[in-house]
Amino acid sequence: MKKVIVTGAGSGIGKEFTKLFLQDGSRVLAVSLVQSELDQLSEDFAFAADRLETLQMDLAKPDAAEALLRWCHENDWLPDTLINNAGFACFGDSVDLEPARVANMLELNVITLTMTSMLFGHEMKARRSGAILNVGSTAGMVPSVRMASYGGSKSYVNTFTYALAAELKPFGVTVTCLTPGATQTKFAQAGGIDTFNGKSLLHNMFEKNKAGSPAEVARSGYDALAKGKIQALVGKGSTLAAVMSRVVSQKHLPRLVRNP
Q1: What does the entry list under GO cellular component (predicted)?
Q2: How high is the pLDDT of residue 213?
């Protein structure tokens, strides 16, 4: 029976990934910062109670990846598939954001994702089998104001994942980058988009419930992972972002995308 780790599993895209893998018969370790969300998972997915395990852990802490790997060794839970979904945004002009909050975001979005990919990928390479999916973003393709640090973190995730895929392919390990557009999750609430009072396309999109479906995003990633694809591009604005990133110089994009 396949073992799958899903980080950020308590809600949104991570919860949908958890559901998909439980439905296909896998065993899932759902990792989240919020215990109440994990408790809700156990209720919502009672049909697979014997295959769902939950773990409350703050993955934004230094050495979180090592702690997760250590837990897996101690509990005989080395995964066949790793879904690096945990992450959040900081929305606002860069110099006005709380530095500690931005540092926390970068620790989670960049450092923990990198270290889990490396540590679990190392074991998959030794076994010559396994799969990793990292959740990047179209925000990493198009630099835009008020999303500078978040977009930078996701640009890193995108490029790191593509390179990792090339490195691990000869060893039977597939690596997929899921690059969704804006998705209707707790993203706006966690990032401060929902309370922003200025002119913002993102704020309007989330407020009017017009962002993409987390179920659709997770399904796209799940299918791409199953086929061994390197990228899954999905969601509102994703095609436009991909085109803009190819035809417009990055130095000009922030002036064109004025009100994210």
Answers
A1: membrane
A2: 85
On whether the CB atoms of residues 13 and 180 are closer than 8 A, the answer is: yes
- d(C-alpha 37, C-alpha 34), whole Å: 6
CA dihedral 260, 193, 161, 18 (to 10 degrees): -140
Spatial contact of 140 and 147, defined as CB atoms under 8 Å apart: no
Eight-state DSSP code of residue 57? -
Residue 119 neighbours by CB distance under 10 Å: 17
Range of the domain at 74: 3-257
Are 146 and 260 spatial neighbours (Cβ–Cβ below 8 Å)?
A: yes
Are 65 and 112 in contact by the 8 Å Cβ rule? The answer is yes
Q: What integer pLDDT is reported at residue 51 of this predicted model?
A: 98
Residues belonging to the chain: 260
Residue in the block written with tokens 């999750």 = 185
The pTM score is 0.87
CA 64, 70, 75, 80 torsion-angle sign = positive
Secondary structure class of 6 (helix, strand, coil) = strand
Model confidence band, residue 179 (pLDDT cutoffs 50, 70, 90): very high
What CATH number does the domain containing 148 carry?
3.40.50.720
| Domains held by the chain: number | 1
